[in-house]
Amino acid sequence: MATFSQAGMALFPRSTFIEDCGASTKSSFLGNAVGSELLVVNRGARTRMAVTSAPKNREITKSSDFDQSETVRVGVLGASGYTGSEDLPNMVAVKDADFLNVDAVFCCLPHGTTQEIIAALPKNLKVVDLSADFRLRNTATYEEWYNGPHRAPELQPEAVYGLTELCREEVRAARLVANPGCYPTSIQLPLIPLLKAGLIEKDNIIINSNSGVSGAGRSAKEANLYTEICEGIHPYGITKHRHVPEIEQGLSDAVGSDVTISFTPNLMPMSRGMMSTMFVQRKQGVTVDDLRNHLVERFSDEEFVVVLEKDIAPHTRHVRGSNYCLLNVFEDRIPGRAIIISAIDNLVKGASGQALQNLNLMMGCPENCGLLQQPMFP
């Protein structure tokens, strides 16, 4: 086995994709979807289950065109981080990888290192990039927020933003998908449908989000030490978190004009999990029930997005290790305003799980393939 670094590549066997493709119900969160390992199949004793209840039973839609005798060969670039590690087969350096032996690639490299590598990959490969390098359509905006030049601007027009439930057909037809960030996933899933429907105002959107420490990555940082994190919470990136332009891009697209948000992220003393609380102004004559009913209708046929029963608040422990997003809407004490709460696992729906969901679409596999039972790390 070659010495492996963040630029390493893991090659998965062809059978990886199809071992757990099958029906499930939306009422059983057969969690532990992918954690950080993306495509590693169930390894038995290391698997942990997280089962909770949803409002309705619903069988997942299968892909009628998918032949389970077919297999897909997948490579993972950067498998030493939380979004790409654990239980991996033999690994090789990128320079030694034979990309002719794979059909698709997950790129889990740090921000700013992905663009040149993806640009050099064979053009026939399907690519899902988990970094932020292709999320922002405007390369000048990328340079402003990520403090460096975009090194593959010729690829940016090709990149499709992979918020699966809201961009499904675009993802299905894509070669290069920019996987959304964790905060943007938890925020855009409820807000974009409400903005598109004209049910909430685009102004005065206030968002407070809480994330587990794994959201900051696996590299050694003083701010992430146990003694710095335990027994307390603290905000960070106030007014300048790098996910702000990504969120504003999606919300602006929904209404056709610029949206500016007030966003404060907080680091929580837990390894994984994310909860976003959004404070919005309802349009004149719109009730909280109207907001909730619209989300129920919008996501009624979705496997992984669940609007909870009225007055039930989402909990991060109910989505731990799963690819689910739990949502609900509450009336604010301030007249005309509403509170929307979402919960996801930042490493799964906020990263690796959504990446696999996207690649399933790109390869013509059932959308929940590989997302039913998986080990968790951490």
UniProtKB/TrEMBL annotation:
PROSITE patterns for this protein? ARGC
EC numbers for this chain? 1.2.1.38
Q: What's the protein called, per UniProt?
A: Probable N-acetyl-gamma-glutamyl-phosphate reductase, chloroplastic
The family annotation for this protein states: Belongs to the NAGSA dehydrogenase family. Type 1 subfamily.
Please state every residue range assigned to the domain named Semialdehyde dehydrogenase NAD-binding: 73-174
**PANTHER family given in the database record:** N-ACETYL-GAMMA-GLUTAMYL-PHOSPHATE REDUCTASE, CHLOROPLASTIC-RELATED, N-ACETYL-GAMMA-GLUTAMYL-PHOSPHATE REDUCTASE, CHLOROPLASTIC-RELATED-RELATED
Provide the active-site residues from the annotation. Answer: C182
Keywords of the record, alphabetical order, are:
Amino-acid biosynthesis, Arginine biosynthesis, NADP, Oxidoreductase
Whether Amino-acid biosynthesis counts among this entry's keywords is yes
Q: In which pathway does it act?
A: Amino-acid biosynthesis; L-arginine biosynthesis; N(2)-acetyl-L-ornithine from L-glutamate: step 3/4
Instruction: Please report the organism this UniProt entry assigns to the protein.
Output: Physcomitrium patens (Spreading-leaved earth moss)
Known catalytic reactions? N-acetyl-L-glutamate 5-semialdehyde + phosphate + NADP(+) = N-acetyl-L-glutamyl 5-phosphate + NADPH + H(+)
Offer one example of a GO biological process linked to this entry: L-arginine biosynthetic process
Q: Give yes or no: UniProt keyword Chloroplast.
A: no
InterPro entries per record: AGPR (IPR050085), AGPR_AS (IPR023013), AGPR_dimerisation_dom (IPR058924), AGPR_type-1 (IPR000706), NAD(P)-bd_dom_sf (IPR036291), Semialdehyde_DH_NAD-bd (IPR000534)
Tell me the NCBIfam families matching this sequence. argC (TIGR01850)
The organism that produces this protein has a lineage beginning with: Eukaryota, Viridiplantae, Streptophyta, Embryophyta, Bryophyta
Q: Which GO terms describe its molecular function?
A: N-acetyl-gamma-glutamyl-phosphate reductase activity; NAD binding; NADP+ binding
